[in-house]
Amino acid sequence: MSDAADAVTGITGGSVIINCAYDLKNVKTRDSAKSFCKMLGSECTMVTEVKNDLWIPEERFSMIDDKSLGLVSVLIRNLTVNDSGTYRCKADSTWFQEVKFNVEQ
Fold first, then answer.
1. What Cα–Cα distance (Å) separates residue 62 from each residue in 4, 25, 66, 76?
2. What are the chain's domains?
3. Which alpha helices (DSSP H) does 1-105 contain, by range?
4. pTM, two decimal places
5. Which intervals hold domain Immunoglobulin (predicted)?
6. Which of 26, 31, 32, 85 fits a disulfide with 91 by CB distance 3.0 to 4.6 angstroms?
C-alpha cells in the first residue's frame, strides 16, 4: 500500500485508465481476486472486480490484473463529474492503493 493517494484527472465524456501496483512478493495479494471501489463516507462501494485474470466488463468500468507485472488496471469510460472521488484498489479484504480521481468539464 502506498503512503499517499495517487491523483488522477479525467475530462467529462472521456476515458481514463487507473493503474494500481502491488508487491509481487506478497503471494496472498498476488493470488487474490482484485476489486475497485469508491469511498462513500466510511464505506467503500464496489465498482468492478476481476477474477482469474479475465476482463469482467461492466457498463462503463473494466478491470484486469497483470500478475506478471503486479499491476491492476481499471478503465473508466464516458466519464461524468459524478465519477470524481476517492477510490481504492483492493485485494481480498484489504486495500493496497488509494486514488483521488477528479473529472473536469
1. 24, 25, 13, 7
2. 6-104 (2.60.40.10)
3. 27-31
4. 0.83
5. 5-104
6. 32
